[in-house]
Backbone:
DNA sequence: GATACCATTTTGGGATACCAGGGCGGTACC
DNA sequence: GGTACCGCCCTGGTATCCCAAAATGGTATC
């Protein structure tokens, strides 16, 4: 395996960054799962990953354990399975998000230093008609993550980040819909405006509505596309 | 290693339960950390764990990765360190708990089926003067976990469970204080009563106050005991 | 006595060998 | 043809082995 040509996959050696094999495998595998290159419900074998990324089973195993705690993969008896897209989960996730994100935005609204808000607003504005969908997808998630970061609370931040990770695959559907995207962005800006004014209640109310609306849009388009997704071999678990 | 006498530590073969080495190591190591048998801040080496539990490094490493995501251990450069008791973390944890537990208790109060409440109440009542402190400690955490389970929301449940795990070691201090314990139990019962009445707002208010009070009691006694803990070799990070 | 330097040991990261259990396919028997 | 059985193959679980980097400790130099 030392001279395995596949090992060329190894880190592109970014200056100053020494990436371990485990981090490599974890990152690449996560990207493949979140980018739907590996379909929800698909079976994974350690040997396949091993040869795919040119790493031995030791880092592969470590990466799998990490991804399991992120909820991106699960155990199917003895083997590994990419987590299916779960409609019921989306509902529960929205409830959880509302709890942690509202708490975070309230803290953010209470801050004296509002400079972080402008950074986030600029991030939103960096997306325009020419921006590829993948970028909208990423920024849409980062909005919530960065907002949570403003709270200064590591646990709220981690909760939001985990939730967004789990939501990530389903959100590709929302991103496809021009109208839904516009609505989401408007709501994002409205939340930011309330935070800027220091109006915690208003920010909480708006964010809460945004999360519920986002869930509804998602559930609807997922329900509509269920057949299409299944046709592509994606496991979609009903609510 | 096949004939390592330490391997006798292996699973006691409970009927019907086949415990893998990884699960064994993870469980035992977690118990040692949470039970303060391994002090906060202490260094861990994979080789020590390996010989201590009679398992090879593969399951040991898997267990360490798990415990890392639970926040019980962390990396110290290249090595592993038992997470110190962190006063600042307790504050942030209380904020997080308030967010998720209040959300959970509101859902629980909205349930038609209130039978779960009685089970939790019975659990609380199972503790009396003769009950060992370790049991009070466990039940005190399980109260919050089971309450969250009533919500039926997996994410809220996981959030509460994770938070209680992180809090667990510090809570040994609260359990030592008879008065604090009495107050906590009274507050627990009050929350349950509100849930039983279906009064979500009241339950939320009471639980919120309980979490804040618990944090204050904890921070105070931890601050007082800091010297003693440090004398026992426990790393305690100031707020 | 302090400090810089070097050899040795120790540690985590990675690779590989081996094993037991389960799945799958073929075959023989009914 | 159908079904039960048997054995091969693949999988994850585990135990080692090797390696490079980092810690350690001793020593020589100033």
Residues:
């Amino acid at each position: 395996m030392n001279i395995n040509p596949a090992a060329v996959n190894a880190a592109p050696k970014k200056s100053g960054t020494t990436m371990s094999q485990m981090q490599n495998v974890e990152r690449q595998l996560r990207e493949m799962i979140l980018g739907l290159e590996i379909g929800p419900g698909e079976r994974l074998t350690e040997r396949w990953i091993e040869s795919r990324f040119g790493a031995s089973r030791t880092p592969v195993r470590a990466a799998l354990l990490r991804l399991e705690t992120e909820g991106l993969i699960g155990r199917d008896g003895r083997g590994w399975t990419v987590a299916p897209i779960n409609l019921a989960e989306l509902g529960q996730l929205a409830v959880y998000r509302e709890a942690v994100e509202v708490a975070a935005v309230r803290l953010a609204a209470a801050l004296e230093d509002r400079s972080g808000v402008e950074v986030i607003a600029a991030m939103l504005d960096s997306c325009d008609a020419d921006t590829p969908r993948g970028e909208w997808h990423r920024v849409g998630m980062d909005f919530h993550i960065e907002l949570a970061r403003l709270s200064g609370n590591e646990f709220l931040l981690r909760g939001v980040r985990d939730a967004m990770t789990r939501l990530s695959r389903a959100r590709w559907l929302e991103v496809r819909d021009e109208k839904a995207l516009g609505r989401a962005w408007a709501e994002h800006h409205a939340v930011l405006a309330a935070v800027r004014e220091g109006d915690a209640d208003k920010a909480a109310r708006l964010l809460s509505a945004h999360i519920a609306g986002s869930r509804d849009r998602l559930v609807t388009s997922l329900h509509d596309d269920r057949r299409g997704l299944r046709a592509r071999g994606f496991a979609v678990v009903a609510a």
